[in-house]
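User: My collaborator sent over this chain with a note saying "see what the structure looks like." That's all I know about it. Can you take a look?
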Amino acid sequence: MGSSSLFSLIFCFLVLFNCCFAQIEQVTSQHGQQQQGQRRSQQNECQFDRINALEPARKFRSEAGVTEIWDENDQQFQCAGVVVIRHTINQRGLLLPAYSNTPKLIYIDQGRGFHGAVIPGCPETFQSSGQNSRDRRESSQDHHQKVRQVREGDVVALPSGVADWFYNNGDSPLVLVQLLDTSNAANQLDQDFRKFFLAGNPQQELQSQRSSYQSGQHEGESRRHKQERYRNIFGGFDERLLAEAFNVDTKLARRMKNENDNRGIIVRVQHELQVVSPQQSREEEEREREHQRRPGGRGNGLEETFCNARLKHNINNPERADVFNPHAGRLTTVNSLNLPILRYLQLSAQRGVLYPNALMSPNWNINAHSICYITRGSGRIQIVGDNGQAVFDGQVREGQVITAPQNFAAVKKAGSQGLEWVSFKTNDNAQISQLAGRISVIRAIPEDVLANAFQISREDARRLKNNREEVSVFSSSQQSQFGRD
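Assistant: Without extra context I'll predict from the sequence alone. Here is the result:
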């Protein structure tokens, strides 16, 4: 082969390689863009001068509980592309099965109960004890998918389109705080949150009331909710087709529509709910914790298949704290490293506990919005935007929600009764950068740079860098040591 032919062959190979590499790069780039999803459409909605700590805007009573929804039209929720809902389920109350168009994180703020998630294509691995008859249709056994026990402090992750339900089998109300990520790539409809109920006769007001729609949508679409009567999914099907699909009579198919059901979406179970759920002993809980602590026990590709993936992780146990200061408080994080399914949801959460008058280091979220729900106590929060002006500076209390947009700097200080919260983050591995403390950005800058930047002496610069040896959560014991000058 001549040198010219060899050169031509090499040239063709390089061209082919570059084309393949370009295609791979394009696919990778498209995948990355898809992971960001529709969140980019929210970027122009993050221009504001003021954020408020909000109470629920709408409240709806059901037979066995209450549902509260924060105003999704508020600019902070439109900026983050999320919706926040709180369900309070009374004893023996059942939150009816439903699925939504968005992935969601659910924080168990109070109580305990059962949670069922029906994942398509997964087997019915739980079955009750009963006598089998020759005709399977007459079997006394009940087969269903896995039922999980949930308790205070659990974070439950649920992919988009997966139907789930909750039941309160405890002695106190079961309180669920849900974050629905409407701007997630998994939602290909619009920026409304949509609940598709499999039973009951839900109120119209439970659906999205968002008044501002993205460009390109028809004006008449904004009146959709006012023109429709809301029913469960089966309410829109012909009862004869339903009867044929389920191989039942039309009378039973008609009952599935729940047309005259006025119980709401949280109904009272007349007798104790009969489901199959093994009781988890303390020894089993400890083995589960040990399994989660082992590096080899995370995401090995076998147990983290969709059908048997872990959907919950408790962040209320002080032993699981990622940061702990005996004089100030603790921080506990759940992300895709300790709950791998969050990698698909692109969400995470952090629980914070500040002791009375303690302080969390000023910080900003590098790669996520942070939606903070106050679970206990009260305190002061400041949030500062890119123009150096505070978009929020005020007191917060239990039950309020406030959003710190990506890159906005924030600081929390507990009141006399302490401050506790859970922050939902719009990234599966959310990261923060701290402004003060031992691992802060100020600590990492040379003294001379700080001295010249702030026009201060080297001694003052040294104090800025080194006077806080704590990490993330600070005690209040040092606040008056150097005065307030």
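A starting point for your reply to your collaborator: The CA atoms of residues 137 and 247 lie 11 Å apart.
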